[in-house]
Design a protein that fits this description.
Length: 121
């Protein structure tokens, strides 16, 4: 049997604040928390989730892995997420791309795409 994606683990200085930000972005909730990690998801039985863990070091380079969000309206979603504490970032994308690059409050880049109906769009 093949594996399935369970969680994406994200290093953080403030795992609880990062979890709260991403809960607001994705309309998810905290499904598990202890002193070492906070896991969020649509609900406790829906995978994958995001798991935040505290690390001492700061982020120094562009992420090698990032999340892509698929909204109904890209521009409206970008404005909503910026209002939650994200910021726009330039990672070298051209002005003609169909996505927006943002960073969460700790600087982790992610993209807000134009609406997609499948993984082939």
């Amino acid at each position: 049997m093949a594996s399935s994606l369970y969680t994406v683990v994200i290093d953080a200085h403030d795992m609880r604040a990062q979890a709260a930000f991403w809960c607001a972005v994705l309309d998810w909730k905290v499904v598990y928390a202890d002193e070492h990690e906070v896991t969020i998801g649509a609900d406790a039985s829906a995978t994958p989730g995001l798991c935040f863990v505290t690390v001492p070091e700061s982020k120094t380079l562009k992420n090698r892995l990032h999340l892509d969000l698929n909204p109904d309206d890209r521009d409206a979603e970008v404005e909503r997420i910026v209002g939650l504490g994200a910021r726009r970032v330039d990672v070298g994308q051209s002005a003609q791309v169909t996505w927006a690059v943002l960073a969460d409050p700790e600087g982790n880049e992610f993209c807000v795409l134009s609406p997609k109906r499948s993984l082939r769009d």
